[in-house]
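DATA SHEET
Item: assembly model
Revision: 1
Owner: S.N.
Input lines:
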Amino acid sequence: MFLARLTKRVGIAATTLFGVGVIVFVLLRVAPGDPIAMMIAPGATPADIAALRAHYGLDESIPVQFALWLKGILAGDFGTSISIRRDVLDLLAERLPATLELATAALLVAILIGGGVAIVGTMLRRTRGESVVDAANGLLLAIPDFVWALALVLVLGVFYPVLPLSGRVNPQSADDFATRFYLVESIVTLRFDKFLEVASHLVMPTLALALPLAAVITRVLKQALAETMVQDYVLLARLKGMSELRLILQEALRNAVGPTLALTGVQFTFLIGGTVIVERIFSYPGVGNMAIDAVINRDLPLIQGLVLAFGLMFIVINILVDLAVVALNPRLRHG
Amino acid sequence: MTTLNRRDALALGAGTFLAALLAGRGISAAAASDTLTIAFNVNLPSFDPTVGSNATNPATQAIYRTVFDHFIDQGPDLAFKPGLLTEWGWNEDKTKVWMTVREGVTWHDGTPLTAEDIVWSLERAAKQETGNPIQFIWSTAGNYKIDGNKITGDVLRYEPTYFMWMAYLTGYVLPKAHYEKVGAEGFEKKPIGTGPYMVDAYEGNSFLRLKANPNYFGGKPPFETVVFKFVPDATSRVAEIESGSSDVTLDIPYEEFDRLKSVQGLAGIATPITDIGMIFITNVDVMLDKNVRLAAHHAIDKKAIVDRLLRGYGVPIDTLEAPNYTAYDPSVVVGYDPEKAKELLAASGYSTDKPAKFTIQTTRGLKPKDYEMIQAIVGMWRKVGIEADIEVYEIAKHFELRAAHQLAPAAFYNWGNAIIDPTTSTGFAMFGPSPHSAWKTEDLDKLIGPLWGEKDEEKRIAGWKAVSKYIAENGYVIPLLQYVQPIVFKSQLKVAPNQSGALQPVHIEKA
């Protein structure tokens, strides 16, 4: 049952990725902004321009270009970046870990903040405190991630300069890592100083990405908890003398978390999209930052690779969330 | 005896973590005395300075000039001076080129620079298949012969700017043996030059760390370590310098420049550079009417734009030759004259009630106040009888439209010319066959054509000045202003501004 469900999801994922590939490939070639036009030398003749176009394989028809690209991908060759002049797959492998660490950290922080505020809000329901929690949450919801990023830069970078403003590590110690998963590596190798260095660079971009998601989690979880808290089994538990906090944590939370988890999965994909701007503001060397340069330079092979990578991440996240929801809900687990 | 419960232990752990996190700030704070940290405005995507679109980006030249050396050097005042070549020139009838290679120079891996490296770099640049965007210049000479540290070559087509380009875009010397050994991808991973600093660590979109080249032929560089932080967001660059995380930054909004330079511990300089802002006129529609073109130019109060929008940081210009260019002619003046603009438009049947209509394209945020400038210009035009619709586009779209000769009748753009020769400004921007021109008419091409190969330098420059005058009289383009580059730095430093706009660490020293 589980395997069949998983196989079906993988099949759908492959089809989705193929569709994404087709759409991106065609859109990039019909959208304004010719990459060759950006490279034309002042004294270039039409023959020079044609040679340049052929050099980058852009002289063929779109179907032929697509077939060649697809053939390359199936052979593990995503092409060479026009602007960076390196293998696209190598670049993705180099940059993805940074984005994955950032996105995962942001998700965890969002769950902690969002979950915590939802629980506090539930404990304070029908009091003035609940209004304060709701108002604060509304404010969090209304402010997008890039505004949080700029506000954090101003407060924690300039007014109270306690955190590094840019990058992933201190440039002086950048070559102290064997892998690209700096945070994970520093934990696994028990290098506390390195962990602190990487973590201090992660704080601001993580908060910028996490706060809007935390607000969403708070709203959904608090609503779900409110509905659960009036269920008979919760009332019975209360009659038995359980404290409010224990009621929420031990009785209500498990049933309320389902819809929150599903929504968090969807919102997490938006969070990954948000890394594009946030990574730019903090000069964080992830795929999002690279994506902006790729678009500015009309680096078609790199944009295609990046979109496929983002697509793959979205699909994997959704599959994981689906599996988690099933695991948490016995009714779904048993068909 | 004090005992810790679970809550106390958690609180203590969290407190320790936060304290350590904040204490870690000291590690990443900028500038030990032998380290210079620059909050740089663009990312460096590729190390090879001779190929790809990045090779022609004037902004990245500051980094390339720090790791590599040009064939010929160019000072901050734009004067050409010996680099890896100590002497150079043409023979009497300009059929041969000759060069003398500096002796005693070593690559970053310790191997000596040879005349073979120079010739290999020139020949590689001249090959179309290597993708050098300035190949059309490098291919004008060839058949190089080496005799010790002397190189001679044949002039295949006389190009007056051949040696000037040796100090600018793609005019860098690369190591023949190393490049042939490691290949293009290998070179990206381990770039080697002869420049004052050597690549030490690199994280794309984040930073480049360089260490001083102790064997640099120009003497030991002033800092042991230089860090370029890639901070494309202007707000973040302001934060970098204001927080003390970086020692120098550039190209920030002029409002912030004025504010920061008065902050204690910081200083600022603003220097006119070789970039200009202009409006391309395309020979279509209403722009075929000379009166409309000239009226559009006379109606613009450039000084007001500079004073009010750019806080005085800009130099109004009337030709594509800025004051620090070789063919600058101060006698060519168009001038702000709205009454004359009205008269010209009236002569063609246009007025404020019956305006001449066209579209003007512009970028938004690419250059300081670009969109706002065009808004102001459209407002000035409206007062004299021109109604222009603003269309915002991305720079990539501009390039595509320009190459296809499909720009709108008016299009804002910025143009750089660090070798200050008229061929690279008026020439490429206005010569019909150039893929970068918008105005394409025979009368102008007949004037420009003979100047490309003119061997008499005095006659050549005089010819370009005459072209500038002719263009101004006919309103074929609307030059707006020469840009001013703002640089903010810690007051313990001394920064020599570079008129090319390249902020090179070798021009920064401790005060």
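QC remark: Residues 67-177 of chain B form a domain with the Dipeptide-binding Protein; domain 1 fold (CATH 3.90.76.10).
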